[in-house]
Amino acid sequence: MKTYGHDGYMGYSNSNPNLPNRHQYLNYNADGNMIEQVLEPIAGIEHTQIYFNGTDLHVNLDVDSSLSDGQIEQLRAKAQSVVQHNMPRYSVHVEVKR
Fold first, then answer.
1. Out of 9, 49, 80, 98, which could bridge 94 as a Cys pair, Cβ 3.0 to 4.6 Å?
2. Closest Cα to residue 71, out of 40, 34, 38, 98?
3. Domain edges within the chain
């Protein structure tokens, strides 16, 4: 009897390469790097802390202390929008502190 092995067609291990449980795809480390990359161009962010809790994504931002309250809220809303757009599989929560 001939088996098909792991050829990605008749074998099971490689037939669904985009499943979230694959090590090379969709992991928290890669997602964290992506979030930092999309937040980097936003001016006023000094430090980013990211943590995951299942499908909840929490982003804590340390921002420039010279920003006004209105500017901080605009920055928070922009960061929320950018991260949610790039990470649709998570429920994104962004908090800002000086």
1. 80
2. 98
3. 28-97
Q: Mean pLDDT, to the nearest integer, of 44-73?
A: 95
Instruction: Please tell me the predicted confidence (pLDDT) of residue 86.
Output: 93
User: Per the structure block, which two tokens stand in for 67?
Assistant: 């920003």
pLDDT digits 0-9 by tens, 13-50? 555 555 555 455 568 888 999 999 999 999 999 999 99
Asked if residue 48 lies in contact with residue 35, where contact means CB atoms within 8 angstroms, the answer is yes
Whether domain 28-97 has CATH 3.30.70.1350? yes
* pTM strictly above 0.85: no
Angstrom CA distances, 46 to 1, 40, 69, stand at 62, 9, 16
Judge whether 56 and 84 are in contact, CB under 8 Å. Answer: no
